[in-house]
Amino acid sequence: MADSDIERRWWKEAVVYQIYPRSFNDTDGDGVGDIPGIVEKVDYLDDLGVDVVWLCPVYESPNADNGYDIADYRSIMDEFGTMADWERLLAALHDRDIRLIMDLVVNHTSDEHEWFLKSRAGDDEYEDFYWWREGRDAEAVDWRATEGPDGEAPPNAWRSYFGGPAWAYDDEREEWYLHLFDRKQPDLNWEHERVREEVFELMEWWFEKGIDGFRMDVINLISKPDGLPNDPDDPFGGAMTGPTNGPRVHEFLSEMNDRVLDRDYLTVGEMLGPEIPMEHARRYLNPDEDGLSMLFHFEHMLLDRGDDIWERSEWSLSELKAVFNRWDEGLAEEGWNSLYLNNHDQPRMVSRFGDDGEYRRESAKVLATLLHTLRGTPYVYQGEELGMTNYPFESLDEFRDVDTLNPLRNAIEDGEVESFDAVKEAIRANSRDNARTPMQWSAEENAGFTEGEPWIGVNPNHEEINVAAERADPDSVWHYYRDLIALREEYDVVVYGDYEPLFPEDDAVWAYTRTLATADGEERLVVVLNFTDAEVAVGLPDDVPREGTLVLGNYADDEMDDDAELATGDLLLQPWEARVYHQSA
Ligand code: GLC
Fold first, then answer.
1. Which residue of 22, 68, 185 sits with most ligand 1 atoms within 8 Å of its CB, as the best mutation to test the pocket?
2. Residue 242 pLDDT
3. Rounded to the nearest whole angstrom, what is the distance from the C-alpha of residue 218 to the centroid of ligand 1?
4. 181 C-alpha to ligand 1 centroid (Å)
5. Angle at 546 between CA 545 and CA 548, to 5 degrees
6. Distance, CA 58 to ligand 1 centroid (Å)?
7. CA–CA separation, 401 vs 94, rounded Å?
8. Which of 310, 447, 521, 566 has its Cα between 20 and 30 A from that of 220?
9. What is the pLDDT of residues 21-32, one digit of tens each?
């Protein structure tokens, strides 16, 4: 891409840091992180060099799903602090030129939200704010419901993402309501104009407070298919594929775009589903349609997952590359990619795609290099910059997450799974709780996260892996992240260069170039990453220019040797070695 064709945006040049407040830093000793705890760490974020903070939900919530069940969009959860604390946080971030994006969770609310209470009570104005339906004749559909009146089955066969039917029976209204997530997370009815109005107003309200954008939770679920039909091919899996990218989703989002969005905000929509068709993706991102800056898809996150939380599947490097290659190509001309390998819903990337044993440090750096040198905006999840790993869960009572506990308990009850022990390895690998163990600040008790009893276990490896130790060690993962972030600032090609994969089928090495036409010629990166614990020889194709200098790597080799290797085109990579060369011609 030539320099003059580039659509420059601050959010393309930025690195985003995601904070899960419950697990970040606790200042009042209740074992739960809080907003004053984040304020205390803004200098930490500034030193790391990130440009944006994405704050997971901090609104009032009964915490059935750790804040993703919102009871009041305009107030702060007591456990996390007050609105004044939040305002201090915003000011402290803005003082350091760090922007703030909030989590917008509007596919559903909490069942304790005022709208739901009124809807359940049949209040005229709110009765259609949610999806209320009569049950079906249980005999006719051969379904023995575990709740609701005798002889009644839920209105359709959709399953909740958290296991079990997607419908709950309400004794007060004597009808069923839809919840694609927990029963305490009823889905809002976006067909209702007033629901949309309310959402746009609350977004405006936060923009007026000075935020810089939103991450939009499961936003491709807001439009439900007409008549809420079952998926004919999969009567029990209907909820998994049925309601994504529904018939009116672009209409609703473009209305949001017209009403409240601005191209200068960072907006990133979370898009559930095994695959997001590229035509949809482009519409989500088209400034004249839905106008989101970016989206999160799940294609790489599903590679090693089985259908259920207690199942795993084999993945290969070429499959992982294929996902990123397809997305880079798909959005090369229109749209922009987000890049993430971790978040609060995913196990730790080092345990998953790297090596959390002997090569933890090296493999964390390989993955970091990938994240920061592909084309797109990198999202760093708290603790990732330390190379934090999965937690060694030993028993079911160590888990906190509904998405682990609900499905597993149901499966054990139904006899589908024998016991926790029978599926321990997979649950351990898959659980969202891996991401939610406290941030490791120091080698002290509870990793310096809290002086109280932490709400979830602290990883015992905090004695070795922690902020204090890594900041003191120039060769740490933390310093490497800092260097990568600085590289993005230094070279335009890191942000805007075209991406060209070199050996797409190779299962050991991920190599690519990034190229940007400049006023005086061309600027290029050559990135070579070894994804194995063995030495690997790489022969670069002839058309990759041979001149360049190593600007970042994770082995303390002689840089001159590395440059000499580039000149010959024959590279010998150490286990989990990462090299980034820069060329300008
Ligand atoms: C998103 C969130 C997740 C939450 C779910 C329901 O996937 O990231 O944490 O449980 O939506 O709101």
1. 68
2. 57
3. 7
4. 8
5. 100
6. 14
7. 33
8. 310
9. 999 999 999 999
CA dist 517 to 45, 496, 547, 584, Å? 33, 10, 17, 10
Please give the number of the atom of ligand 1 that sits closest to the Cα of 181. 6
User: Ligand 1 within 6 A of 65 CB?
Assistant: yes
> Of the residues 23, 101, 218, 404, which should be mutated to test ligand 1's pocket, given the most ligand atoms within 8 Å of the CB?
218
Closest of 289, 353, 288, 276 to residue 319, by C-alpha: 353
Q: Which stretches in the chain have pLDDT values below 50?
A: 235-236, 240-241
Bridge partners (DSSP) listed for residue 52 = 16, 99
Please tell me what DSSP assigns to residue 550: E
- Who's near 312: CB < 8 A, 6+ residues apart? 304, 305, 306, 425, 426, 429, 430
pLDDT of residue 560: 77
CA of 168 to the centre of ligand 1 (A): 19
Q: Element (H or E) spanning 571, and its range?
A: strand 570-573
**Would you name the residues annotated as active-site residues?**
217, 270
Strand order across the beta sheet in which 338-339 lies: 294-296, 266-270, 213-216, 99-104, 52-55, 16-19, 377-381, 338-339
Sheet containing strand 175-178, strands side by side? 132-133, 175-178, 167-170
Which residue's C-alpha comes closest to atom 9 of ligand 1?
A: 345
Ligand 1 centroid, distance to 109 Cα (angstroms): 12
Given a contact cutoff of 8 angstroms between Cβ atoms, the answer to whether 286 and 319 are in contact is no
Per DSSP, the residues of 535-547 read: -EEEE--TTS---
Q: CA 468 to CA 128: how far, in whole Å?
A: 53
The residue ranges of DSSP E strands in 130-228, in sequence order, are: 132-133, 136-137, 152-153, 167-170, 175-178, 213-216
For residue range 7-21, list pLDDT tens digits in order. 999 999 999 999 999
Cβ 177 under 6 angstroms from ligand 1 = no
CA distances, 42 to each of 340, 380, 425 (Å)? 22, 15, 37
- Indicate left, alpha or beta for 309 from its phi (over 0: left) and psi (-120 to 50: alpha): alpha
> Ligand 1: does its nearest atom lie under 6 Å from the Cβ of 218?
yes
- Measured from the CB, is residue 221 less than 6 Å from ligand 1? no
The answer to whether the CB of 161 is under 6 A from ligand 1 is: no
**Ligand 1 contact via 276 beta carbon (within 6 Å):** no
Distance (angstroms) between ligand 1 centre and the Cα of 270 equals 9
Alpha-carbon distance of 470 to 466, in angstroms, equals 6
**Is any ligand 1 atom within 6 A of the Cβ of residue 68?**
yes
The CB of 105 under 6 Å from ligand 1? The reply is yes
Q: Which domains does the chain have, with CATH numbers?
A: 3-108+193-220+246-398+434-478 (3.20.20.80), 114-178 (3.90.400.10), 399-430 (no CATH), 496-584 (2.60.40.1180)
Cα separation, 69 vs 113, whole angstroms: 9
With a 6 Å cutoff on the Cβ, whether 54 touches ligand 1 is no
pLDDT in tens, 315-355: 999 999 999 999 999 999 999 999 999 999 999 999 999 99
Cα 22 from Cα 59, distance rounded (Å): 12
**Six-digit token string for 404:** 């682990």
Q: What pLDDT does 81 receive?
A: 98
